[in-house]
């Protein structure tokens, strides 16, 4: 089988908040068309990793390459174009409270693709239907939706512009197991339909098993294990074993000193 | 801790905050002026800052004008100088009380609401989400608010001036026995364009400062509900202090010579 090209490559990424060194030379590669899930405990820097790629957090050192181009060394306009390929589902959905559902979904279409409002609404409703919602919720406001519906709207907003790359930040957090499974199925199907490259972060193992082609484990600011999702139960790595089986005993310290601003 | 170190840390803190504020304002203005512009956002802010502040500013203005006439009468009647009341009311309203009180009222109503709204957007990652949708938060969120403040506070002050003068007229004619026509003639005979213009310039400056503090504190807020609460308080307190400080500076510029 021919090797896939690398879509995202992160090399030596470092980020500290004060004395808290969250990322300490993190390396990870994501091949085009694959779904990579980064696992790790709370506060290990998973969110900082994707926020660094998105340009929301400015890393202290390292390289972030998208399609072979370093976004940190690129001009603002180039970096914007490279990052413009990314659609993101935030942990709490991060829907805009002041806008109705359809405008949330159509926001990227109007801002990125400059599609007129009336056409954008039609596309937004189609995208809502693709995630199991539709016209009935289009004119509601985010506060009128349940947590699961908000996640679906967030997913619709992320995929509305048909991005080449999709990021998912804790996509099932706060959902009941059935709704979590629905969201996992949706993620799997939209990633496959779009042929997108996906990078997710989660500590929900059910989610990992459903959406990952490859899994990487983040611990103390570095990737300590990476492999195919099917090998996760036989990784041979005591840190991964402890995390996957949710055991209190093992090499991962379960009581840590309080840390600042790491996801 | 060493008192010198404490003083140094305080000075560094103030300089750092001021630097952050100036950078924030310059970034919002330079990016906002270049565009793309968001007319819906600008209109929404103009409506929120201008139209929805009318009741509170109008009420403040009418009672201020009424009290001003009453208090001036109490003082001036001792020297048989009651005829100066229309002049006192019109000058005080247009030059000082109109802009300052409208600015303080808008700081309490709009500045607090901006800090709370942007702060909530920050802690719920909505501002981060904007960036991922190819939208610059400075252009989409901050610039429309600054523009709305600069345009709408002068309009509010113009209305406050008229309502305040009417309040003074009402008390003077109904309670203090002034002739309605000569009161109006005296008011307009004494009023100059410079009085009104200086008040409107002050209003534009106050509008900018109120919205800048609301946006800055909200945008920079951290730490959940408590952080948003702190940002809201800081926005109102800082805007109020800046209004009173800049009031003196603008007055110096207009009337020192």
TrEMBL record, chain A:
InterPro entries assigned to the protein according to its UniProt record, in alphabetical order: AAA+_ATPase, ABC_transporter-like_ATP-bd, ABC_transporter-like_CS, P-loop_NTPase
GO molecular function, one term: ATP hydrolysis activity
Gene3D superfamilies: P-loop containing nucleotide triphosphate hydrolases
Keyword list, A-Z: ATP-binding, Nucleotide-binding, Transport
Domain of life: Bacteria
CDD domains according to UniProt: ABC_Org_Solvent_Resistant (cd03261)
Positions of the ABC transporter domain: 8-244
Pfam short name (any one): ABC_tran
PANTHER family for this protein: PROTEIN TRIGALACTOSYLDIACYLGLYCEROL 3, CHLOROPLASTIC
Designated name of the protein: Phospholipid/cholesterol/gamma-HCH transport system ATP-binding protein
From TrEMBL, chain B:
GO molecular function, one term: phospholipid transporter activity
GO cellular component entries: ATP-binding cassette (ABC) transporter complex
Membrane topology: Multi-pass membrane protein
Keyword tags: Cell inner membrane, Cell membrane, Membrane, Transmembrane, Transmembrane helix, Transport
Cellular localization per UniProt: Cell inner membrane; Membrane
Keyword Membrane attributed: yes
The keyword Glycoprotein belongs to this UniProt entry's keyword annotation: no
Transmembrane segments: 51-70, 146-170, 190-212
Function: Could be part of an ABC transporter complex.
Family: Belongs to the MlaE permease family.
PANTHER family for this protein: ABC TRANSPORTER PERMEASE PROTEIN-RELATED (PTHR30188), PROTEIN TRIGALACTOSYLDIACYLGLYCEROL 1, CHLOROPLASTIC (PTHR30188:SF4)
Protein name: Phospholipid/cholesterol/gamma-HCH transport system permease protein
Species whose genome carries this gene: Arboricoccus pini
